[in-house]
Amino acid sequence: MRRSRLEGVRKNELILRFCEMLSQIKSPNESVEFIKDLLSPAEIEMLAIRLKVAEYLILNWDYQKIRQELKVGFNTIARIKTWLDVSGAGYRKLIERKQKQEKIAKLGEKVVEALDSVDRAIGDSPLSYSWWRRQGGLSQFQNEMAAHWLKTAPSRKQRRFLKVLQEARQKPGLFKKIEQELRVQFEPNLKVKVD
After folding, report:
1. Is the pLDDT score of 71 beyond 90?
2. Which of 96, 154, 176, 195 is least buried, going by the fewest C-beta atoms within 10 A?
3. Where do the domains of the chain lie, and which CATH numbers do they carry?
4. Global pTM?
């Protein structure tokens, strides 16, 4: 790496300006445009690999597994590990934020899977998701479906449903509202105890 031609305050001003510009990016598409304009394809690949190595290190992958997966050398992995240990706050924040988004997406998939399972079990009736979707009134469908399902579902299914709700407890907005509504309206009908 070459030595900076700029010194002190001027260099810091330019770095701060660059960081401010990064913070103005509003979407993944804007990120792609900006990065393609700023970096060469080789530089983009290098940064993407570094980020993935950092993620794997945070997930406690061993060096050999990372090396095989990403085709990088042990020195590269060790250098990134050192950066993580010494000053990896930026890496960690981005990686943890991405992991949180992935967990939320998986939770959403579980909810959709549960809805599909209920839909298949009860068929095309006013209690099915597809019937209400055609009617255009999903919030009423959700109440009707939850009431019917919680009254009739086997204990094992109720426990699974409650587990999904428990995973959603820490999520804002919709999931908390759904859980509160279900507890207020349907808890007396459950066959299993809610903790």
Report:
1. yes
2. 195
3. 25-87 (1.10.1270.10), 98-189 (no CATH)
4. 0.51
> For residues 139 and 8, which has the higher predicted lDDT (pLDDT)?
8
pLDDT of residue 69: 94
Q: Which single residue is written with the structure tokens 């399902």?
A: 149
> Which residues make Cβ contacts (< 8 Å) with residue 151, sequence separation at least 6?
186, 189
Give 122 or 73, the one with higher predicted confidence: 73
The two tokens of residue 164 are 């999904």
- Which residues have C-beta within 8 Å of that of residue 31, sequence separation ≥ 6? 25
